[in-house]
């Protein structure tokens, strides 16, 4: 996998975490325990530092970066959706950043908050815990409900499980030439999630 030092800055990755072979990790990056870093994610610690707490997931095509002498921090159980961009911001414990969001420099997303898909968080924005943020620029709509937080938590648990599944069984193969009889499908043992926040 492409993991690079720059000058004296060498990434640190806990061995319990999974980094997809197409993800790129550069420089001053610290990745904690049981994290999932997805395909084509780019974590560039070539200016500021990047700190990923335990049990976080950073999904496909995400970009994480910072200005010099700044840090981008993800507290434990952060959930970063596909193609999100985080720049020099602070993501609180158990917060969810939706698909295709942008979170700008020195913004702080409070713990257990949910940022809806395609939202834009302005620089220096600071939201309290359990906030539901929607829009471009994002606005605080209301407090995250217990049902919505349970939905978020279930999704994060799925990625914690995926981390172990990848460590155990993900490998490069040649494709089959036809569909096998009784082709297996993945099914979660945790049941169905409630409606996606912001969709009602």
UniProtKB/TrEMBL annotation:
GO terms for molecular function: transferase activity. InterPro entries: Hexapep, Transf_Hexapept/Carb_Anhydrase, Trimer_LpxA-like_sf. Signal peptide: none annotated. It holds the Pfam family Hexapep. Keywords: Transferase. Gene3D superfamilies: Hexapeptide repeat proteins. Residues 176-200 are annotated as: Disordered. This is Transferase hexapeptide repeat family protein. It comes from Shewanella corallii.
């Amino acid at each position: 996998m492409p993991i690079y030092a720059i000058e004296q800055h060498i990434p640190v990755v806990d061995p319990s975490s999974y980094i997809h072979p197409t993800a790129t990790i550069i420089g001053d990056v610290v990745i904690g325990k049981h994290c999932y870093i997805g395909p084509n994610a780019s974590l560039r610690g070539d200016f500021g530092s990047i700190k990923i707490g335990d049990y976080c997931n950073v999904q496909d095509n995400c970009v994480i970066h910072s200005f010099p002498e700044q840090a981008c921090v993800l507290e434990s159980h952060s959930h970063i959706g596909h193609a999100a961009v985080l720049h020099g911001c602070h993501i609180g414990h158990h917060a969810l950043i939706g698909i295709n969001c942008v979170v700008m420099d020195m913004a702080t997303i409070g713990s257990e908050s949910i940022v809806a898909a395609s939202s834009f968080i302005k620089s220096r924005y600071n939201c309290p815990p359990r906030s539901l943020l929607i829009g471009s620029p994002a606005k605080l709509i209301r407090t995250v409900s217990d049902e919505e937080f349970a939905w978020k938590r279930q999704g994060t648990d799925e990625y914690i499980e995926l981390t172990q599944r990848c460590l155990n069984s993900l490998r490069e193969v040649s494709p089959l030439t036809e569909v096998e009889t009784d082709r297996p499908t993945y099914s979660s043992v945790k049941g169905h999630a409630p409606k996606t926040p912001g969709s009602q």
